[in-house]
Amino acid sequence: MVSVKADGAIAARFHGAWRYAGTTIDGEVRTDRGGEPVGLIIYDPSGHMSVQIMPGRAQRPTSPIAQFLSYFGTYTIDEAASTVTHHREGDIRPNAPTDVVRQYRFVGDRLILSPVGTAQDIIWERTR
Predict the structure, then answer these.
(1) What pLDDT does 27 receive?
(2) Could you give the CA distance from residue 76 to residue 64 in angstroms, rounded to a whole number?
(3) What are the residue ranges spanned by the domains of the chain?
(4) Which of 11, 19, 29, 97 is the most buried (most CB within 10 A)?
(5) If DSSP codes are grouped into helix, strand and coil, which group holds residue 56?
(6) What gap in Å lies between CA 35 and CA 38, rounded to an integer?
(7) CB atoms inside a 10 Å sphere around CB 70
(8) Average of per-residue pLDDT across 103-122
(9) Which CA distances in Å does 26 have to 17, 31, 32?
(10) Nearest Cα residue to 77 out of 2, 17, 16, 7
(11) Residue 54 CB: number of other CB atoms within 10 A?
(12) Which CATH code for domain 2-126?
């Protein structure tokens, strides 16, 4: 496994902030996060990451906590497998798994993360 601290081109592509652009499952838009969800994922060069996704502002007051995603920790990249593992140190959900593995791919200014073994794509756009 290659740590994100490694001086590599793939690791450098992760660094920075990415805005949530949506999630699809089997090509269909996921709608269970409330109307117009917003989010941000950040990967820094020291190996730390943070992610938040929540319903749009108008829906937040009445949205159940299950529609919110928020965690932070460190991450590692396995370039050979095209995966990034989020090692969660804190999570809004008390029973969430500690480590989650995502397949990754870059398409233009987008980072697409897919939980391993699923047809789900979590789409992020690089902030400018």
Answers:
(1) 86
(2) 31
(3) 2-126
(4) 11
(5) coil
(6) 9
(7) 14
(8) 96
(9) 26, 13, 15
(10) 2
(11) 21
(12) 2.40.128.270
Residue carrying the six token digits 């652009």: 21
* Amino acid symbol at 96: A
Structure-token match 């740590």, residue found? 3
Match 């995966």 to its residue by tokens.
83
Q: Which two tokens stand for residue 84?
A: 């990034």
Residue with tokens 């959900």: 93
CB neighbours of residue 68 within 10 Å: 18
Among 19, 8, 37, 5, residue whose Cα is nearest residue 125: 19
* Single-letter amino acid code for the residue at 112: I
CB atoms within 10 A of CB 127: 11
Spatial separation of the C-alpha atoms in residues 78 and 116, rounded to whole Å: 13
Both tokens assigned to 124: 């992020």
Q: C-alpha angle 25/27/33, rounded to 5°? A: 45
Residues 6+ apart with CB under 8 A from 80: none
Structure tokens at 77: 């990249």
Structure tokens at 71: 């965690």
pLDDT digits (tens, 9 = 90+) for 59-98: 888 888 888 999 999 999 999 999 999 999 999 999 999 9
